[in-house]
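Priority: medium. Attachment 1 of 2:
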C-alpha cells in the first residue's frame, strides 16, 4: 500500500464536492478523515476484528477519549473497572468530571453483578480484560448480558489481545478499541489507535464525534502499522511462547509469591480466559514474596540488563516496571508488584537475566 499523504482532495466538478467522514461509502473527500493509506489500515483492522468499520485515531488514549465523548454527556453515568488503563481513569476523574459526566469505578470480577450498578442515566460500560497491571480477566459475556438488558452499550479495551486473541464482537461487545502502538506497531516507534464498531448506531455515534474532534493521523505512521500487521501473527505466537516459559519459570522461584499471567491458574479470572480467549500475549506481572521490601524490588528491576525499564509494551524489547503506588481496593501489593513485557529475545537469555537479578536481591545495589 503506497503512503498517500494529503490534506485537500481535488474534485472533478463542483457537483462532486463532499465533506463526509463516511469515506468508505462516499469516497475520499478530505485528509482529516483519512487518506487511502489510513483507510486501508482501518479496513484491515476491521477485517481482523470482524468489525463493520475501524476508525484510526492518534493513539490508544485518543480512542478511549473518543468513545467517552461519543456515548457520554453532561449528567450521564458510566462504569469503568478499577483495573482500567491508568489514563482512562485519569480522564474519568479529570476532564469528564469537569464536563459533568460521572464515571464510577467497579470491581473487574463483578460479572453479572454489574446489573446492580446500572442506573437510569448509565450510557456506557467499559470492560478491559485482562485489567492493566493486575491482569484480572473479566466475565465479558455476563457484563454484556446485564448491560444490554438495560440497553447500555459496552466498550472494550482490547489492546492486550491485539484484537486477535479475544473476539470482541462475537462476545457481544458494541465498541472495541486498541492501542496499535503496542502489538500492531510492534516496534515501539509509532503511536496509533483504533475504535472498531459492529453496529450502525455505534458507527454513526463514533463517526460524527471523530469528525468534530478532528482526530487526524499521519499516513506515514499508518504505513508503518500496515507493515507491522505483516508480522503480527508470527510475533504474537513467539511472545506467547516466550512469556509462558518465563512466567512458568518465575512461578517456581522462591522469591516470587505469585505470577499474574492470564494463562496460569494463579491469575484472577483465569477460567474466563480459558473459556473466551484463543491465546495469551506478552505481558504479565509478578508479585514478590512478603519478605522483600519495596526498595529491594526496585533494586531487582535496576539490576536487570536485558529487560529495559519502560511503559509502552508490545515491541521487540522486554521491559520491566515496578508499580509502587498501585490503587486496588482491598489489595495491597506494598510495592512488590513488577510488570513484565516479553519481547523477541530468547527465553533462555531472559531467564538468565532474571536469575542474576533475583539471586542478588539480598545484597545492596
Ligand atoms: C498503552 C495502552 C493504551 C494507550 O495507548 P497509547 O497509544 O499509548 O495512547 C490504552 N489501553 C491500554 C490497555 C494500553 O496498554
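Attachment 2 of 2:
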Amino acid at each position: 500500500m503506497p503512503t498517500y499523504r494529503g490534506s485537500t482532495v481535488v474534485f472533478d466538478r463542483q457537483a462532486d464536492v463532499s465533506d463526509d467522514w463516511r469515506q468508505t461509502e462516499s469516497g475520499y473527500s478530505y485528509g482529516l478523515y483519512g487518506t487511502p493509506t489510513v483507510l486501508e489500515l482501518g479496513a484491515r483492522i476491521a477485517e481482523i476484528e470482524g468489525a463493520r468499520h475501524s476508525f484510526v485515531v492518534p493513539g490508544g488514549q485518543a480512542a478511549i477519549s473518543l468513545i467517552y465523548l461519543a456515548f457520554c454527556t453532561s449528567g450521564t453515568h458510566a462504569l469503568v473497572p478499577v483495573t482500567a488503563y491508568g489514563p482512562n481513569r485519569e480522564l474519568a476523574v479529570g476532564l469528564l468530571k469537569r464536563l459533568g459526566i460521572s464515571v464510577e469505578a467497579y470491581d473487574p470480577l463483578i460479572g453479572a453483578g454489574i446489573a446492580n450498578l446500572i442506573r437510569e442515566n448509565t450510557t456506557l460500560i467499559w470492560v478491559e480484560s485482562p485489567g492493566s497491571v493486575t491482569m484480572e480477566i473479566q466475565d465479558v459475556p455476563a457484563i454484556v448480558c446485564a448491560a444490554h438488558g438495560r440497553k447500555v452499550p459496552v466498550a472494550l479495551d482490547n489492546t492486550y489481545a491485539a484484537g486477535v486473541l479475544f473476539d470482541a464482537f462475537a462476545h457481544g461487545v458494541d465498541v472495541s478499541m486498541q492501542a496499535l502502538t503496542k502489538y500492531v506497531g510492534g516496534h515501539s516507534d509509532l503511536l496509533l489507535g483504533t475504535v472498531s464498531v459492529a453496529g450502525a448506531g455505534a458507527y454513526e455515534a463514533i463517526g460524527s464525534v471523530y469528525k468534530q474532534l478532528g482526530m487526524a493521523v499521519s499516513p506515514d505512521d499508518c504505513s508503518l502499522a500496515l507493515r507491522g500487521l505483516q508480522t503480527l501473527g508470527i510475533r504474537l505466537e513467539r511472545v506467547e511462547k516466550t512469556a509462558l516459559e518465563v512466567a512458568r519459570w518465575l512461578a517456581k522461584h522462591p522469591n516470587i509469591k505469585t505470577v499474574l499471567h492470564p494463562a496460569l491458574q494463579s491469575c484472577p479470572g483465569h477460567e474466563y480466559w480459558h473459556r473466551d480467549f484463543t491465546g495469551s500475549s506478552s505481558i504479565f506481572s509478578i508479585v514478590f514474596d512478603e519478605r522483600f521490601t519495596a526498595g529491594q524490588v526496585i533494586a531487582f528491576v535496576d539490576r536487570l540488563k536485558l529487560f529495559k525499564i519502560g511503559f509502552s509494551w508490545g515491541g521487540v524489547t522486554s521491559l520491566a516496571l515496578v508499580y509502587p503506588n498501585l490503587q486496588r481496593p482491598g489489595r495491597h501489593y506494598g510495592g512488590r508488584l513488577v510488570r513484565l513485557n516479553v519481547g523477541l529475545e530468547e527465553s533462555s537469555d531472559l531467564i538468565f537475566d532474571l536469575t542474576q537479578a533475583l539471586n542478588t536481591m539480598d545484597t545492596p545495589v
